[in-house]
Write the structure tokens for this entry.
Amino acid sequence: MPLDLDLSKLRFGTELLKRGFAKMQKGGVVMDVTNAEQALIAEEAGAVAVMALERVPADIRAAGGVARMADPVKIQEIMDAVTVPVMAKCRIGHEAEARALESLGVDMIDESEVLTPADPFFHVNKRGFEVPFVCGARNLGEAVRRTWEGAAMIRTKGEAGTGDVVEAVRHIRLVTAAIAELKGLENDRLLAVGTKFAASYTKLLEEVRTAQGSDPTVREADVVFAGATLDDITEGIYQVLLEIKKLQRLPIVNFAAGGVATPADAALMMLMGCDGVFVGSGIFKAENPETRGRAIVDAVAHFDDPSTVAEVSKGIGLAMKGLDAKALPIEARLQDRGW
Amino acid sequence: MRIGVIGVQGDVSEHVDAVARALKETGKAGEAIAVRRRTDLDRVDALTIPGGESTTISKLLVQLDLFDEIVRRASDEAMPIMGTCAGCILLAKDAGVQADKTRTKLLGLMDMAVDRNAFGRQRESFEADLQVEGLETPFHCVFIRAPAILRTWGECAPKSRYQDRIVLARQKNLIGSAFHPELGGDLRIHRWFLDLV
């Protein structure tokens, strides 16, 4: 039970607390669960956190239609069942869903492309929240924009609900190579990259001006998002890039997601430099979720020990059937949601 | 001296950085390394156990054959250990119903009872400046889904409190902290730990 805290001397929901929460997840596996029973299986298998959903991505894909925030009853049931942190998903740009999840007390919100996006122009302004956010990214530009918006964790998007790891690999490779590329850049070039990354905040204003027959060019002093001018955003993104250039990694925790189905898939993502792994459909769509869950946790912990990865991969039953991500029609690709 | 950081899950790199900075500040020769194998553990003079999920860290310590050796070295050789958050839970002899429910195996080295997630969920995570016995000015404490130490007995002594809860305790070579001294930038508690080595 929360104590009778003296609010005047305490600080809640700071960047340090939000990013710190994400750091505690490192080296772990976050598992998608749809009820209390699955949540307990995930916890027993060694998940560092669970993602509370109504349907796993493979089923969302199969069901079609609009995918929305889960029923709070479901989320609450899962929160009551386990002692590990509970995350839940809101639609991209859906501030009201995010606020509802925050009020439920979920430990982290995933602003996720697995759900149908609610805002065609913007993601949620995450700085305005006390709860930490994790956001998907396909490349460095998306990762940097989400970081600037206040995300505490990035997960490379991959292609959720396929069980095909190729897109997860593509996205971590794109992020890693882009970070290495920054190393050789002088600050003026870095500012040019920042300017390019900031440009996608101007779409709304450009569309409005075009419709009004005015010059669509958005200028530095124009307010484009969350009270910030294009100049503020460019400067903010430049500062994030400076930090990335120096650290040679993202300044926040970076997990893999979207297609991890086997212990070896999970180990591969760790070998490629991810801080941990989200497994969505890969566990509860497999033949034996409990054994597979444990095996994936072990493979993440021992990612650099091939004999352990081999050992834990033995006789764990069939993996989810999966979909060839390359064969997906464009409209079925979840990774293109968000920008 | 070589300080190990249990490197199986949690904020490992932050612990390695904090120990390395504390070594530099104190002018002590040494290094900080992540410990994932018995051969790593055999090379270190002291250990820190990071924050993370105590259930996960505990399972991995057993699997990696580190668990019993940590207990042996702490008991027989008085190896210094500092545990923060999840690490503090693992050092305790009693971690209440949540640890029982998840069947978390505790190192059980410190005479204290802790309560997991004592302050609530992530939204109840907080930063506060607290008095720490032996430090002249308050310490900036970062609590993230933190445990609290409910009581200590025997040779374990409280060193800092938040309201009616103990948040830092020491028992000879062992330090348990409910908060994260590795995250706040203030290394006085780390320096105190290094003095034990």
Remarks:
- Residues 2-194 of chain B form a domain with the Rossmann fold fold (CATH 3.40.50.880).
- The interface with chain A takes residues 7-14, 51-53, 55-56, 59-60, 63-64, 85-86, 98, 101-102, 116-117, 119-129, 142, 144-145, 163-165, 180, 183-184 of chain B (CB under 8 Å).
- Chain B has seven helices and twelve strands.
- The mean pLDDT of chain B is 96.
